[in-house]
Design goal:
single chain; 134 residues; mainly alpha; DNA Cyclobutane Dipyrimidine Photolyase, subunit A, domain 3; 6 helices; 0% strand
Length: 134
């Protein structure tokens, strides 16, 4: 079955790109939350991203947050067999720590095993900035 609706698909792509009309202030498309809500066990990701097939359950949505031992057991080497994320949004941390079957950090946040370098001069911080320029 092919699911194709030109208007809906185009609108959804615009929404996820952060452009278009939206009455909410400072909205962001949270990929981790969407993955957990609609692909809780990671089956869809596992189908289309064979490099991550060894990662069990919802951990597949944020492999950079796994320990070196877990990545090694899954056959994943960040930066070699699977890339580091280009950007990590602060909002993702609360969803990473709430994955089913995971123990939460005492403060409710878990950082990545090794944080990727983000460069402010590349413009991506504008999208994730809390500052408002009217």
């Amino acid at each position: 079955k092919v699911d194709y609706d030109v208007c809906s698909n185009y609108g959804n792509w615009l929404y996820s790109a952060g452009i278009g009309n939206d009455p909410r202030d400072n909205r962001k498309f949270n990929m981790i939350k969407q993955g957990l809500d609609y692909d809780g066990n990671g089956d869809y990701v596992r189908l289309w991203v064979p490099e991550l097939q060894g990662i069990k359950g919802a951990d597949i949505h944020s492999p950079w947050a796994l320990s070196s031992a877990a990545l090694s057991q899954a056959g994943v080497t960040l930066g070699e067999t699977y890339p580091w994320p280009v950007v990590t949004a602060p909002e993702w941390s609360r969803h990473i720590s709430q994955r089913p079957g995971r123990n939460s950090h005492p403060r409710g946040r878990r950082g990545p095993a090794q944080a990727p370098v983000q460069h402010k001069d590349r413009g991506i911080d504008f999208y994730f900035s809390r500052k408002k320029d009217v």
